[in-house]
From TrEMBL:
Residues 272-306 are annotated as: Disordered. InterPro entries: Pilus_assmbl_Flp-typ_CpaB, RcpC_dom, SAF. Residues 44-107 form the SAF domain. SMART domains: SAF. The lineage of its organism: Bacteria, Pseudomonadati, Pseudomonadota, Alphaproteobacteria, Sphingomonadales. This is Flp pilus assembly protein CpaB. CDD domains: SAF_CpaB_FlgA_like. Residues 275-284 have a biased composition (Pro residues). Residues 286-298 have a biased composition (Polar residues).
Length: 306
């Protein structure tokens, strides 16, 4: 019995070793065939995501793999080995299955999910203060495109606190994050007190100045909308649907609805001059006679022609 047990154990070990050898040979052969096919068809080997990757997800051999890729269209920054792509790196942007893993979309070897590594050349990240209302009610999320509005007091003398004006400071600006949230895949409203924007250094200077002279707010745009907007300063008088016409002192105020061709004018009705009244006929010439009775004089009119 002991010799039989030893024989069975030895046979199992041999079969296990054979299975391991066959498995290694198979996978090695598959990889070798893929390399040969790539060389024959002028294909390159690059690293892609083998599963969906979220922002900040560590890269490992479990979520990336090598595939053949046309050599003439290899993306800039693509990794050619799994070892290099997974060397203590994390995803800086969400990636889907089959998407190439690029150096611009992953962190350095310090495994720090830094936005600075994802900024294009000549661009900076600048943060402005927003509220639930000025931040588009929480519906502006990382990856969206926004316009920056500035509301401030009107310049000049004899202006009151209610004399405001609103301008579009910057147009079509990428939104990098709201507060500490930079994950583009985060669903639902994101409420925050700050918004981080991708701008040029000159635009960052504009935002720094604008934040000191007025209130900044965001306007969410359609990412696919490339139509250049018609920009204009909006004043309080532009808030009315109609416009008030100038009037003379004491005259009633007239208003015309926006979109009409010309303002309505009051119709002036001229009254005819009143006809002259007929003159009374002239009285015939007459004279006066005074008769004194005692001390009381009395005048009497004497008409001619009688």
């Amino acid at each position: 019995m002991p010799s039989r047990s030893i024989l069975i154990v030895a046979l199992a070990v041999v079969l296990g070793l054979v299975a391991v050898w066959l498995g290694n040979s198979y996978f090695t052969g598959v990889q070798q065939r893929e390399v040969e096919i790539a060389e024959q068809n002028k294909l390159a080997r690059i690293v892609v995501a083998s599963q969906d990757l979220a922002f900040g997800a560590p890269l490992s051999s479990q979520n990336v793999r090598l595939i053949n890729w046309p050599q003439g269209s290899v993306p800039v920054g693509a990794f050619t080995t799994v070892e290099e792509a997974t060397r203590n790196r994390v995803a800086l942007r969400p990636m889907v299955i089959g998407e190439p893993v690029l150096a611009s979309r992953v962190s350095g070897t310090n495994a720090r999910a830094s936005i600075s590594a994802n900024l294009p050349a000549g661009q900076v990240a600048y943060t402005i203060q927003v509220s639930d209302v000025s931040g588009v009610g929480g519906f502006a999320r990382p990856g969206d495109v926004v316009d920056i509005l500035l509301t401030r007091n009107m310049p000049g003398q004899n202006v009151t606190a209610g004399d405001k004006m609103t301008d579009v400071v910057l147009h079509a600006i990428p939104l990098l994050g709201i507060d500490l949230v930079a994950d583009e895949n985060k669903s639902g409203p994101v409420y925050g007190k700050t918004a981080t924007l991708q701008v040029s250094i000159t635009d960052a200077q504009k935002l720094a100045l604008a934040s000191q002279v007025g209130i900044l707010s965001l306007a969410l745009r359609n990412v696919a909308d490339k139509t250049p907007p018609v920009l204009a300063t909006v004043l309080p008088r532009d808030l009315s649907a109609g416009r008030v016409l100038a009037r003379a002192p004491g005259a009633p105020m007239l208003a015309s609805t926006a979109g009409t061709s010309a303002p309505a004018r009051p119709r002036i009705v001229r009254r005819a001059a009143p006809a002259p009244r007929p003159k009374a006929p002239a009285a015939p010439p007459s004279s006066t006679m005074t008769i004194i009775r005692g001390t009381n004089p009395t005048d009497y009119e004497v008409r001619h022609g009688r």
